[in-house]
Write a structure and sequence with these properties.
Largest sheet of chain A: 7 strands, antiparallel
Largest interface: A-B, 60 and 57 residues
Shape of chain A: globular
Helix content of chain B: 10-25%
Strand content of chain B: 25-35%
Helix content of chain A: 25-40%
Number of helices of chain A: 39
Structural class of chain A: alpha/beta
Distance between the termini of chain A: 48 Å
Oligomer: heterodimer
Number of helices of chain B: 11
Chain lengths: 1097, 421
């Protein structure tokens, strides 16, 4: 059947903010869907609260709503836009849950809107564990023995039957949130209580343990004619027990016979049929007992998933694109395979290479968190690599992580095989390296299997890599033969250098002299059977290269690598826009990146895609291959975050032209002394500061400039290691903690700044072409200075800054842009304290806020920046209409206000004792994503941002207040307002006294540290929170003494999902927004805002 | 790491140097590539690969070793084996021994560590061709001498290999469950999975040598006849074509797969031809034109039938009308034939899979349906779908069911004239 004639407009639901378990992959899938639907002539209406996404660019939909994804908002959009259908299968669990709600509330039926992509019954069969289990059993396949519990008591009884350990899984959550193994009754009680809370249906599944079994996934697609294909098989190297998002995974499956594989395929097809997915894709997970081959079906997702994105990148089969086409009526055999263009999509890709994905974690941001990997996903990003064999793909993937110690090494190792094996028993970030060391130190494959359950085939591959390492080390000379063996198993020049006691540059020189260079193969879905037309390449040290010659002018764009806290989807946004803008300007665009979740690694985005690690070696080799034809105009490094920027110097040294701001100018901004010079020359001031490389010097400087100080290592992103230190013992403690991470060195000293209390922080994104400054936006932080800009909420335009202040900001930004010599983007952070404008830092690169500014004000900063880099001027961009005449420094008073709010992952992380890690914001960034609220004024926009980020504020109930002394003055007005709004106020004794003197009726509650209810007779605040007797928690951290109490309160609030305010600024904004919330939200698309702007201009 | 050198030489002069793998020595054959990511054991023991040097496009081969259940015949048939990264260890609970051990024990010369993708792309562009692998002492031969040996090797076109792969003695596998009837299976290179599928459906399976005569076949008095897959050029198997025509004239239900499909095509009077580089993989999309369903199928064929794709035609050899029932969606190659006036049908691919997806096992059910219809004295035409038919596409489906045997005898005398290719 061709496209359905009755579907002319579709509402696509996005996945909201980036959170662990639901990340950039849904921007990739949603963007694909929007493009496909529009190409089919369908009017696309999009809703997503996440401004950092590419899909929410106004170019990708006919009507783009950056609004909270709630049933009320969705209904408003449906009423306004009258779509024929809603497509929820490309926006992760968020979109699927929203669709189920729309159906449950009768909204779809009321407005006569059809759900496409998956039917409600199919969603429920796939996601409801009991229904799904029955369905699997009916198909003749097996499931783990299990019980559904609705109460903790029921769970305890069932556990008697199943025995410990067992698995707890809440229904309808994503990324395995709330699930895990429990070994004791106490653990069970805690997990089940949490799980019941997490599950929207208040049910959890208790399951027999299949810990240590082999784990596999299949990605399937099915159409209305029951044509079904398996797009990809994925094997988890880490056996069952580690969430697949946290596992090292490999595609295709490498340790199955055809008989076993076809059995999984048969089961998968039978299940997708029974579930009734008939216009899209699904993902099914299996476990296989390695001892006897018994197969258990673990679960399915009746939608495009994280694994689908991986499978798409791994095979070249664009699952989301095809799913969107199936949703509007096409059959698989009616859709051409993009890559061959002559064969249909109704086939199964076959690979002649191996793909390895490794997760990237951020435990360093949560020092208290338990680093054990479980069935709750904890990784924040991933890197993928393609190699002609597993050893190459694995080594490339590990070095793509860009993390110290993530690659195999063969240096000093004090620990013995036994000790290392013992460590490897516990799955953690970096276990594979520990295992490699253990095998290097003489552990056998049998012992390693015993310790980890990892299939012996994968273990032998590590042994093979160790053997090759020994060969490299022991060879008399580093000749072509040795180099070829090394390179055929993925060794980097740096690894070879370590083994030979040489420098990396030296190895590279020897290798090039020996003529050992990679060739580039093509991902073509068919193992070479048909010619591929889509240039999607990966390196291999093989014979024949497949890079087509080109006589065009080329620009290479370096992506931002695996997502991590501080460097996420925002940078991919900028890279993708650069690619689009430069292609439009006539350049051949070449993307290098290793992150499978992104739009930049869609083979449709650039003229050529190299799926390669972003290391100097890998990038230089691609550039060499591309230099063979055409003209290499240069490399764009300022859009891919610190990853790309970090390569600038090495590339320049190798004679590669860097586009935009030069590497020396980048240094000017990063190097404290040089930067001070620029500020002095411009008459600007920074907070008093200094640099130090050791603790003694640091203490001396800190005492000289006065505490509190803000300390941060140089050349880091996301505020890694950034802290506010109050005294010298604190500074010594800081050095102790940072020692292991080795981020402070003579080449990268510690920066020490006087910390500005009570200052307003301002972020500016601007463009500079050497003559003219163009302000993208001036953002005012809602929290005071001291909270990382990535974690702080901010407003655009600023809501409390006067014209004169903004003018000063503009002048200062221009002076800095000139002083550094920026060509392209510049981000400057300022603080205004006691009337003084301080410059905190300047970064001559794309910032995290580029997409936010672009969406809020309609200024395409990344596109403009990429054109500036190749020599276009701001005047020309104005003339061409790409940039609006008026820059973002002046925003008319009747313009809308946009508020960005950060989303934090505290709920994911527990200490080893099982408690939630502390949720206080600080100078080190810990948020994973962001949302935007946009509306006519600040209170409404803020309310929308809170709704989108946290599910909204309660409109009545009980508020608990406990604040630091310094905040006691400023809470009076907001708390008084809360009381007027009808909230009941509770407070700790000290805070209550202040409130009561100010005429606020506040009940007194005990602190947690004063003992438990059983001992004292009355409940503490923590107990009240656990009992659901408190709806809003206001707690600001004070000095060290009260810290423990504050921590317990905040942890309880996070665990119980209560609104939590840790700053007064946020509280005040929230209080101001209550009237807006009560009035209900109106919705407006970005395209309508653009029309308003045009009308004003 | 064994570093004993080996070289793969193609008849057009291309040379790929790698490491010796399996047995050492020299082997000659037709170089072809197989794209399946699983099932190397089934592949190498498939008699259809006799005479061919098989390259696996999947880089890692041998990971799960070799077991006793997945053998598709009693031995390895490939003439030579080309892989990129042979496994050093065996990891599977069913494994009995390593692949290397089997290759060595059976004297199969292989090569590892070469750019298999480059070779694949070369064969794709230049077509399947004669090749040789030289290892051990043979690796040291001068390049010109190796090339000369390759060029003097056998050419697949015109080659009859049935005699090499067929069973010498007939044997019988009893029907499982309720016995429906008996089927005489002409062993042109049969795989064990095929026999298993037939027997599992209540058919007593008489596997007979390819050299069986019309009379011997008649003596068996089978309810139905089945032609298996097998190696070689169908144009060189006139004997089997004639044998089949006799079966068709008698109205005995017939099902053929792979080589059997080519032989049915020739028996009906269609031509066969050599594909540039063949279909060898387990991911080929084939549409069953009677249902509109796409099945993912297992292929291993270098030759194909040339027949009109647009609707039923009168068969040149006078067996009534026939139609192309299955088509490969990648390249429109004929993948199945269905006779509308006699009880015969065939497919070019492997419904028994092994290796490969199980999407096409319904064809064995169709065969059983055909037999039952014949037994019931119903209209003896080729197989019709047992499942629901998509009405939107029924226009593509030819009408079935002329009365039995109205036209077959009349035209049977003209068959010999069709062998002109």
């Amino acid at each position: 059947m061709p496209k359905r004639p009755d579907i002319n407009s579709v509402l696509v639901i996005g996945s909201g903010p980036i959170v662990i378990g639901q990340a950039a992959e849904f921007d990739y899938s949603g963007t694909q869907a929007c493009r496909v639907l529009r190409a089919e002539g369908v009017r696309v209406i999009l809703v997503n609260s996440n401004p950092a996404t590419i899909m929410t660019d106004p170019d990708f939909a006919d009507a783009t709503y950056i609004e909270p994804i709630t049933p009320e908002v969705l209904e408003s959009i449906i009423i306004k836009e009258r779509p024929d259908a809603v497509l929820p299968t490309l926006g992760g669990q968020t979109a699927l849950n929203a669709a189920i709600e729309l159906d449950r509330l009768g909204i779809l039926a009321k407005h006569n809107v059809e759900l496409i992509g998956a039917k409600v019954e199919a969603i429920q069969k796939g996601e409801d564990r009991q229904l799904f289990k029955q369905l699997v059993l009916e198909s003749g396949a097996d499931v783990a023995r299990s019980h559904i519990a609705h109460t903790v008591e029921e769970a305890v009884d069932f556990a008697e039957d199943l025995g410990y350990p067992l698995v707890v899984r809440p229904s309808f959550t994503m990324g395995g949130l709330g699930s895990g193994f429990v070994y004791t009754r106490d653990e069970l009680v805690r997990f089940v209580a949490d799980g019941l809370h997490q599950s929207p249906t208040s049910e959890v599944l208790l399951e027999e343990s299949i810990l240590g079994w082999k784990e596999y996934e299949l990605e399937l697609m099915r159409d209305t004619s029951d044509n079904t294909v398996v797009v990809c098989s994925i094997e988890n190297v880490d056996p069952v027990g580690v969430h697949t998002g946290d596992s090292i995974t490999v595609a295709p499956a490498l340790t199955l016979t055809d008989r076993e594989y076809q059995n999984l395929r048969d089961i998968g097809i039978d299940i997708i049929r029974r579930v009734g997915v008939d216009t899209g894709g699904c993902n099914i997970q299996f476990a296989i007992d390695p001892a006897n081959g018994r197969v258990i079906v673990i679960e399915m997702n009746p939608r495009v998933s994280r694994s689908s994105a991986l499978a798409s990148k791994a095979t070249g089969f664009p699952i989301a694109k095809i799913a969107a086409k199936l949703a509007i009526g096409y059959r698989l055999d009616e859709i051409p395979n993009d890559i061959t263009r002559v064969t249909p999509a109704s086939f199964e890709p076959t690979l002649d290479y191996v793909v390895v994905k490794v997760p990237r974690f951020a435990f360093e941001k949560f020092p208290a968190a338990d680093t054990t990997l479980t069935t709750t996903m904890k990784s924040v990003g991933e890197a993928m690599a393609i190699g002609r064999n597993y050893s190459t793909a694995l080594q490339k993937a590990l070095r793509s992580l860009e993390k110290r110690g993530s690659s195999f090494s063969w240096g000093e190792e004090a620990r013995g095989a036994e000790e290392l094996l013992e460590i490897a028993k516990r799955p953690t970030d970096g276990r594979i390296v520990t295992l490699q060391q253990a095998l290097w130190k003489g552990a056998t494959v049998e012992q390693a299997f015993e310790a980890t359950g990892i299939d012996p085939w994968f273990l032998d591959q590590i042994v093979l890599i160790n053997e090759v390492a020994e060969e490299i080390r022991a060879s008399a000379v580093l000749d072509e033969a040795v180099l070829r063996v090394a390179k055929d198993h993925g060794f980097s020049d740096a690894q070879i250098a370590q083994l030979r006691g040489l420098g990396e540059e030296e190895v590279r020189r020897i290798r090039h002299e020996a003529g050992v260079r990679p060739v580039y193969k093509t991902v073509d879905t068919c193992a070479g059977e048909f010619p591929a037309l889509t240039p999607y390449h990966y390196s291999s040290y093989d014979l024949e290269t497949e890079v087509a010659a080109s006589d065009r002018r080329k620009v290479v764009i370096l992506g931002s690598g695996p997502n991590r806290i501080g460097q996420g989807i925002e940078f991919d946004y900028s890279c993708v826009h650069a690619s689009f803008a430069l292609a439009e300007a006539g350049y051949e665009t070449i993307m290098i990146n290793c992150n499978p979740e992104t739009v930049s690694t869609d083979y449709d985005t650039s003229d050529r895609l190299y799926f390669e690690p972003l290391t100097l070696e890998d990038v230089l080799e691609v550039l060499h291959a591309e230099s063979a034809s055409g003209e290499l105009v240069g490399v764009v490094v300022q859009l891919g975050g610190q990853t790309a920027l970090g390569l600038a110097k090495g590339l320049e040294a190798a004679g590669i032209p860097i586009l935009g701001t030069s590497p020396d100018a980048i240094d000017l901004a990063e190097e404290r002394g040089l930067f001070s010079g620029i500020l002095d020359a411009a008459g600007l001031v920074a907070p008093r500061n200094g640099t130090a490389t050791d603790v003694v010097e640091a203490v001396r400087i800190a005492e000289e400039i006065g505490y509190p100080v803000l300390v941060r290592p140089s050349y880091v992103l996301g505020g890694r290691g950034m802290e506010i230190v109050f005294d010298s013992p604190g500074l010594e403690d800081y050095f102790d903690r940072m020692r292991d991470s080795a981020i402070i060195a003579p080449s990268s000293p510690l920066l020490i700044d006087r910390f500005l209390d009570d200052a307003i922080e301002i972020d500016v994104d601007a463009l500079y072409d050497g003559h003219e400054l163009y302000i993208g936006g001036v953002m005012e932080h809602i929290e005071e200075a001291g909270i990382h800009s990535g974690d702080s909420s901010c407003t655009l335009p600023p809501v409390t800054l006067g014209r004169a202040q903004i003018d000063r900001v503009r002048e200062a930004t221009l002076a800095i842009a000139e002083g550094i010599g920026v060509r392209g983007l510049l981000n400057v952070q300022f603080a205004i304290g006691a009337g003084v404008l301080y410059v905190l830092e300047a970064n001559p690169r794309a910032s995290r806020t580029v997409p936010f500014v672009s969406k809020a004000l309609g200024i395409p900063l990344a596109k403009a920046a990429s054109l500036l880099m190749v020599g276009t001027t701001i005047a020309e961009l104005r003339a061409s209409g790409l940039l609006p005449e008026q820059d973002g420094s002046i925003v008319p008073a009747d313009s809308p206000v946009a508020v960005k709010e950060a989303v934090l992952p505290f709920k994911r992380f527990r200490t080893t004792a099982g408690d939630i890690v502390d949720s206080v914001l600080g100078p080190e960034m810990r948020s994973t994503g962001e949302v935007m609220g946009i509306d006519k004024d600040f209170p409404t926009a803020f309310a929308k941002s809170q709704q989108a980020a946290f599910g909204g504020l309660p409109l009545s109930g009980t508020v608990f207040v406990s604040v630091a002394d310094r905040d006691k003055r400023s809470i009076i007005l907001p708390v008084l307002r809360l009381q007027q709004l009808g909230f009941t106020i509770l407070a700790t004794a000290g805070t209550a006294e202040v409130l009561m003197r100010n005429g606020i009726r506040a009940g007194v509650v005990r602190k947690y540290s004063e003992g438990e209810e059983s001992e004292v007779g009355s409940p503490s605040i923590v107990e009240l929170v656990h009992r659901n007797e408190v709806d809003v928690v206001i707690n600001t951290p004070s000095g060290r003494s009260a810290r423990a109490d504050g921590y317990e309160i905040r942890a309880a609030a996070v665990a119980a999902d209560k609104a939590l305010f840790t700053t007064i600024a946020q509280l005040s904004a929230a209080v101001a927004s209550f009237d807006a919330i009560r009035a209900g939200f109106e919705v407006k698309s970005l395209q309508e805002y653009a029309l308003d702007r045009a009308a004003r201009a | 790491m064994t570093l004993s050198p080996a070289v793969l030489v193609l008849e057009d002069g291309a040379r790929y140097t790698g490491r010796a793998y399996g047995a050492q020595g020299r082997t000659l054959g037709e170089a072809v590539f197989a794209t399946g990511m699983t099932g190397y054991q089934e592949t190498i023991t498939d008699p259809s690969y006799a005479g061919q040097i098989v390259l696996q496009t999947a880089p890692h081969i041998g990971n799960t070793g070799v077991n006793d259940e997945d053998q598709e015949s009693s031995r390895i048939w490939v003439a030579g084996y080309v892989v990129r990264d042979p496994s050093r260890v065996v990891s599977n609970h069913r494994a009995k021994r390593s692949l290397d051990a089997d290759l060595e024990a059976q004297g199969v010369v292989g090569i590892a560590g070469i750019d298999t993708r480059a070779v694949t792309r070369h064969i794709r562009d230049a077509g399947a061709m004669r090749a040789g692998i030289f290892s051990g002492d043979e690796a040291a031969l001068p390049a010109e001498e190796q090339l000369e040996l390759v060029r003097r090797g056998p050419d697949m076109t015109g080659l009859n290999l049935s005699g090499q792969v067929s069973t010498a003695e007939a044997y019988t596998i009893p029907a499982e469950g309720e016995r429906i009837g008996s089927v005489a299976v002409l062993d042109l290179g049969i795989k064990t999975a095929t026999v298993r599928h037939l027997a599992a459906r209540g058919l007593e399976v008489h596997v007979v040598p390819q050299s069986i005569t019309t009379e011997q076949l008649a003596e068996l008095n089978p309810t139905a006849v089945f032609y298996s897959n097998g190696p070689g050029d169908p144009a060189a198997s006139e004997y089997h074509v004639e044998l089949l025509r006799d079966v068709l004239r008698k109205g005995i239900p017939f099902f053929g797969i792979c080589f059997g499909n080519q032989l049915l095509g020739r028996a009906l009077g269609f031509e066969t031809y050599k594909l540039p580089f063949g279909h060898r993989g387990i991911n080929q999309p084939v549409m069953d034109r009677s249902t509109g369903r796409v099945e993912i199928t297992s292929h291993n064929h270098g030759f194909a039938v040339r027949a009109p794709l647009d609707g039923p035609v009168d068969t040149p050899a006078g067996f009534g009308r026939a139609e192309v029932s299955h088509v490969d969606l990648n390249d429109d190659v004929v993948e199945g034939l269905n006779c509308l006036d006699i009880p015969a049908f065939s497919v070019q691919y492997h419904p028994e899979s092994a290796a490969g997806p199980h999407d096409s096992t319904y064809l064995f059910d169709r065969f059983v349906d055909l037999i039952r219809t014949a037994q019931a004295g119903g209209p003896a035409a080729g197989a019709s779908p047992s499942g629901p038919v998509d009405p939107s596409r029924s226009a593509e489906v030819g009408s079935t069911g002329l009365p039995t045997g109205t036209s077959t005898d009349a035209r049977s005398t003209t068959t010999n004239d069709q062998e002109s290719n």
